[in-house]
Design a protein that fits this description.
Elements: H1 2-31, E1 68-72, H2 80-92, E2 97-101, H3 103-113, H4 118-123, H5 127-141, E3 144-147, E4 151-153, E5 165-168, E6 179-182, H6 187-198, H7 206-213, H8 216-229, H9 234-237, E7 238-241, H10 243-246, E8 260-262, H11 271-291
Parallel strand pairs: 1-2, 1-3, 5-7
Antiparallel strand pairs: 3-6, 4-8, 5-6
Length: 292
């Protein structure tokens, strides 16, 4: 009898936890909703093959984002798994400057240009938090395109450089930080780098700590805050890259106009990410079972 009671207590606690999770996720979904008008449409972006270049000036447009590709790795030697993908992008767009940010050069850059952030940078628990943070700072300082090493190029990115900021839509909600376009010194990046200190909290587990302190949920919150404070201009300043142009979580035949291919190498995800994924799949069923 005691075992049965303990089992029911466990299920009740689990149900309350899952109910709270559902409430939180529903609230996040509401507050991080993206205005449909912010999405880039395929009709706004010329479709080019992988060898055709596009000059904004020839089409009456102004290039806002400099031709710089930023990537991060712990050392200057990329692993074989990713080096070919990175090299292919650079060979496709040889006029783009390439900047690889290592653990050492990232810290040196923060110490030289954003010394007010160095203590926070050094105190991060996880290396991925520093890898997340540096991408916001280099985009603020230089502008350009940040790309994770597991993203490949299918077409030159030239037509995307006429917008001040582009962020990709991710699932289930918000935007991702694995690919970002930004002009130098854009106010969204100014807000983002300063809010890294405000959002520097531990959520006990690896996955939520990273996601909410420096990762995609953090960036999604910054996008939400910025659009709320700039309701008339944010929709034209910050464009959202839809799945059809981003290509992630889709079969190649479903996104024939995508600029990017994806090789899905998020190696920093720990076992707690799998647990959260389990909750997403089975959480509602467990909640109702626990409430019976």
């Amino acid at each position: 009898m005691n075992r049965r009671r303990a089992f029911y207590v466990f299920l009740s606690v689990l149900a309350l936890f899952l109910l709270g999770t559902v409430v939180v996720l529903s609230s996040v979904t509401y507050y991080l909703a993206i205005d449909p008008s912010a999405y880039l449409s395929e009709s706004e972006v010329p479709f080019l093959d992988n060898s055709t270049r596009w000059n904004p000036a020839e089409h009456g447009k102004v290039q806002r984002i400099p031709r710089i590709i930023h990537q991060t790795w712990k050392s200057e030697t990329l692993p074989a798994r990713w080096s070919g993908i990175s090299n292919a992008c650079r060979e496709m767009m040889p006029d783009y400057e390439y900047m690889l940010w290592t653990d050492a050069s990232s810290r040196e850059f923060i110490a030289e240009h954003y010394s007010w952030f160095l203590d926070t940078f050094d105190d991060y628990t996880y290396a991925i938090q520093r890898a997340d943070a540096i991408r916001y700072f280099v985009l603020h300082y230089y502008g350009g395109i940040y790309m994770d090493l597991d993203i490949g190029c299918l077409r030159p990115m030239d037509p995307l450089l006429i917008y001040p900021v582009i962020l990709p839509k991710t699932i289930p909600v918000g935007v991702s930080n694995d690919l970002m376009f930004a002009e130098k010194g854009h106010p969204l990046l100014e807000q983002t780098i300063h809010n890294l200190v405000t959002f520097d909290h531990s959520w006990i587990l690896n996955y939520p700590t990273v996601m909410f302190s420096t990762g995609p949920m953090f960036l999604s919150a910054q996008y939400g805050l910025y659009t709320a404070s700039h309701p008339t201009s944010a929709g034209t300043e910050i464009r959202i890259l839809p799945k059809s142009l981003y290509g992630k979580n889709a079969k190649p035949e479903e996104v024939p106009h995508s600029f990017f291919s994806h090789f899905y190498g998020s190696s920093w995800h720990a076992d707690d990410a799998a647990f959260i994924g389990f909750l997403g799949t089975w959480g509602k069923g467990l909640m109702w079972f626990g409430l019976l």
